[in-house]
Write a structure and sequence with these properties.
By secondary structure, the protein is an alpha+beta fold. It is built from 5 helices and 11 strands. It is globular.
Length: about 190
């Protein structure tokens, strides 16, 4: 990055390979409704770094490098939500609890256990990130058309549970593409 330049990035927990594989299988069952998130980009966002400059990224690298966190178990809760931060910026957009609208993300809730909570709190507090109403989730994909929300709320979800392999800092390249800037491997149980 050149001096004075900023970027949008985020800190995330990588999901275990076993869960990613199970989610890819699930994506195949709803491919006609949901454009799948790429397997290699599946994650749980812990905090956003909006317009981060080199100083903020250096502080983030140091925090991750020095962090000593146990690997949290990643397990879906069965809670499914939908929505879009990008669409919410459009004054014409109206969220509808009963309809997944074209362009909204389909999000699968993840158990907010003590280990995940500790990592998220230490990172957001250490970097002065404000995350209101944090709800850990994995994005299944983007809706390609409007459809009843019950279709995703009622689908059978994977029951895989495994430890998260790493905490990453990812730079946004696009809404669905990211580049890894920093990776902190987490010790297994």
């Amino acid at each position: 990055m050149t001096s004075g330049q900023t970027t949008n990035a985020f800190i995330c927990l990588r999901i275990p390979g076993e869960l990613a594989d199970a989610l890819v299988d699930l994506q195949q069952r709803c491919r006609n409704r949901v454009d799948p998130q790429n397997r290699e980009h599946m994650h749980i966002t812990l905090g956003f770094l909006h317009d981060a400059d080199e100083q903020k990224l250096t502080k983030t690298r140091a925090l991750l490098t020095e962090g000593a966190w146990p690997a949290p178990a990643v397990r879906l809760t069965g809670n499914v939500r939908h929505g879009s931060w990008a669409l919410a910026k459009n004054p014409a957009y109206r969220y509808d609890e009963e309809v997944v609208q074209k362009g909204e993300q389909v999000r699968l809730g993840v158990e907010h256990n003590d280990e995940l909570r500790r990592i998220q709190e230490e990172i957001t507090q250490g970097l002065d990130i404000v995350e209101r109403d944090f709800w850990p989730h994995v994005t299944l994909g983007l809706a390609v058309e409007d459809f009843p929300a019950a279709e995703v709320r009622d689908m059978p979800l994977p029951t895989v549970s495994a430890p998260a392999p790493s905490v990453d800092v990812q730079q946004e390249v696009s809404a669905v593409e990211f580049t890894t800037l920093v990776r902190k491997e987490l010790p297994g149980p």
